[in-house]
Write a structure and sequence with these properties.
By secondary structure, the protein is of the alpha+beta class. It contains seven helices and 14 strands. The longest helix has 19 residues.
Length: 253
């Protein structure tokens, strides 16, 4: 936090395992994460870690796998925009459907979103209370992944929306969608499954639905740094269906 929005925090280092340029803010966050994980390993736990910056590291066992994005929303973090998080997911297999626990922790506000497979989802320790959508025929608040290309690809949804939010963090945007804060969230161009791992479980455990932009299931996708997918998700199944119909209609033109 002290180096967010500073020249020091924006210092460019090497290219990380995920393919993005690592900044000092990314390195510092990852160092803090690995310090905690090393302490857990020293206490006798055996696992592996897949981190956006460091890649795959073993702590005595291939599985379970701890998937870590030390700073999701790193552009926000380096620019000093106060909306970014650490994402953690525990995976007992190889796919998105094998995520057993997830946590999205807002590093600015301290808000914590968590889920355990089959055990529900919580926001700051309380079961997520999902806000009901105001309408089923129109998206009142649409969330998008942040790029000009994404905005153009999401044109069918933009036309059906009253307001748009581009927040700059996949994990947090999806968590707020799980609670109904955003009616629909869409990544209309392929994004890394890695960034979605914890939030997909939070969304599922709170009763929401997520597919790719053509309606395909995400559960069989490999949970690694290379796999990419489009995404349409919502806490409201009727809104999800409406958004999906709009996207697929545009794709078939």
């Amino acid at each position: 936090m002290p180096i967010s929005g500073t020249v020091e925090g924006r210092a460019q280092l090497a290219v990380g395992a995920g393919g993005d340029r690592t900044m000092e803010v990314d390195r510092a966050a990852e160092a803090a994460v690995f310090s905690e994980l090393k302490a857990i390993a020293a206490a006798g736990e055996r696992f592996s870690v897949l981190s956006e910056e460091a890649g795959l590291r073993s702590f005595g066992a291939e599985r379970p796998l701890v998937v870590v994005d030390p700073v999701d929303g790193s552009l926000n973090a380096k620019q000093g925009i106060p909306f970014f998080n650490v994402m953690l997911a525990l995976v007992d297999g190889h796919t998105v459907g094998d995520v057993t626990a997830g946590c999205v922790f807002n590093l600015v506000s301290g808000e914590r979103w968590t889920a355990v497979r089959g055990g529900g989802a919580e926001r700051n320790g309380e079961t997520i209370a999902v806000l009901r959508a105001g309408r089923s025929d129109r998206i009142e608040l649409l969330g998008l992944e942040s790029s000009p290309r994404s905005l153009e690809a999401a044109r069918p949804l933009v036309a059906r929306s009253a307001k748009i939010r581009i927040l700059g963090s996949m994990a947090l945007s999806m968590a707020h969608t799980a609670s109904g804060g955003l009616d629909v969230f869409c990544a209309p161009v392929p994004m890394r499954v890695f960034d979605m791992a914890a939030s997909l479980l939070i969304l599922s455990e709170s009763g929401g639905v997520a597919t790719d932009a053509r309606g395909g299931s995400l559960s069989a996708l490999e949970c690694n740094l290379a796999t990419r997918t489009t995404l349409v998700c919502s806490a409201d199944r009727a809104l999800h269906a409406m958004a999906l119909a709009a996207m697929t209609a545009e794709a078939t033109k």
